């Protein structure tokens, strides 16, 4: 199972168990894991860095982003080990950070990490507000040319590649990216509600506009700007899941059922896709596929509980019907003719989290900077090249490949990065930065684990 699948399964499980009081013996230092995981987002920052930047080997970058489109698109996050910014997975990262804060903020407070989590979220939502600055007609979906970027191995501080702007609009829609942005801003409005009421209201107002755009002008950004986003972040699951997901988050943020008809309509279309045999997987949850996450969220208010339970039965190793969804906390999970207590789900989540932190055959932590043994050759341009501190002079586009191919450890520690992990079906891991599937981190993998680690900070035996 890939690290992305593990992380969203584990987070989905714990989100359904968020009210369950279950204690466990601590195999790992989850406070340290939580604080370490949040540092990663500082390594992914784009734009003008703040004075309290802790990963000081990173410097300002991409300060003219958006100029080609006549808009300010500085800031936000680089999604992985390259230097392109994609609004779709970035928005999912924000949604998961916000959900982690909403559900597991108590564990963050115990670890003194609530502020760091909130700052990681705000760095993201500030960019999403810029990406939606030209609503009601336009949403900015991407900055940078991935093909030009990928022929370079270059620090973001040195970027000389084109930084075109790609947008969806009323004539060329992108319901998945706009719907995910709506979900992110709505979820973040809840996370910030008692911390910064004015900012929370601003986020919620923009979330409503983004959702109106997504739902009124329906269509996939694959058809509108697929030449730019594909094959990197094509939407494979359709956009109705984002319409359901965004509507569900708006209902939660407004404490109402104003968007319920939109949610139900989108879910009916999702299920119709399943009947037609198209790309509908009811038991997955990722930056692309929101099916399981939507059902988990809705099950918290007593809706779509059957679909949520399908998810739970999918992840439990002992289940006769392995799928991927979840039932509300404190209820027995029925999988076929077998029933499981809620703590079984938390046990599964903990085992998976512990595996990532080093309880595995290699004794390898797959989070950089945690434990005595962790990846040293992360597939990441900025981490693998010398920092501006160590090498102030410019490093050109092609000159960095000597660092990609060298056997030495990375020049800089990308603390907190959760890498792709071992090969599918085995526990083998190649600590080789040229093996991107195993050694490249992403923001949308780290984001759910912020909540996972915070949960276990707050639940001890």
Radius of gyration, CA atoms, in whole angstroms: 21 Å
Largest sheet: 3 strands, antiparallel
Percent of residues in helices comes to 40-55%
Shape, per Cα inertia axes: globular
Sheet with the most strands: spatial strand order: 1-2-3
Number of helical stretches of at least 4 residues: 17
The figure for the number of domains is: 1
Q: CA-to-CA gap between the ends?
A: 28 Å
What's the CATH C level? Mainly Alpha
Q: Return the average pLDDT rounded to an integer.
A: 90
Given as residue ranges, the uncertain stretches (5+ residues, pLDDT < 50) are 323-329
The tally of beta strands, per DSSP, is 5
Strand content: under 5%
| CATH fold name | Glycosyltransferase
Structural class: mainly alpha
CATH architecture: Alpha/alpha barrel
The secondary-structure element order is HHEHHEHEHHHHHHHEEHHHHH
